[in-house]
Automatic annotation (TrEMBL):
Lineage: superkingdom: Bacteria
Record protein name field: STAS domain-containing protein
Residue intervals of the STAS domain: 16-103
SUPFAM superfamilies named among the record's database cross-references: SpoIIaa-like
Source organism (scientific name): Streptomyces prasinosporus
Gene3D superfamilies xref list: STAS domain
One Pfam family of this chain: STAS_2
InterPro entries listed in its UniProt record: MlaB-like_STAS, STAS_dom, STAS_dom_sf
Amino acid sequence: MGTWRLAPHDPGAPVPSLTVRPLDGCRGVRAAGEVALATHTIWERVLERAVREGEGVYHLELSEVTFVDVAGAGALAAAAERLGDGRRFVVRRPPPTLRRVLETFWPDLSTIEVSMS
């Protein structure tokens, strides 16, 4: 899968970036940075790949993600809705705001499991 990183080219302003690497030992990725307008392309590619990859559990390790905007949460929920029977995302240690947005807008989405450990 490799490592993906995207950041706009405005040297004078702080910009969000998102780095994604494969997880060792299980199917999934470890992300670091922010999911925001400037990084949606990477986030959506990761989610689309996860939907296409086989069956079972796909882990999203987000302990190093500091922010996920509402569009990023919506993209996660939309991808989870496209998972086949018996499949799910396990979202590990997400930023508190992502957990709250998922609980508020998609409380019954059984294809996303949030783990704080």
